[in-house]
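RESIDUES AND SHAPES:
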Amino acid sequence: MTIAEKKAIKNKIKEEIEKTRSSILDYKESTKPISPENAIGRISRMDAINNKSVLEAALRKAEEKLTRLRVVESKIDSQDFGDCIRCGNSIPIGRILLMPQSRKCVRCAN
């Protein structure tokens, strides 16, 4: 992997970390408890509760992604960065730039 590729990957990871942090803040704001004293109808309240559970799932996924991004960020300067943790083959640079949190090649990820 070239120095320019590593620099591009570092920039992409930092960008993804910031986007994910922003998403987490939005999700946390959207998943606050629904106050029972709000005057909304029964159906509207059920929709709000359903939407809240969907947003909570998205929040968990975003938090997991942030954790994986931080792990990858800490390992970017290691000798085996860019190698699949399962089979050991090199992960294509396009995949790393598309999904910097992934540490497996496409074949092993499936």
About this structure: Helices lie at 3-30, 42-75, 93-98, 106-109. The first helix runs from residue 3 to 30.
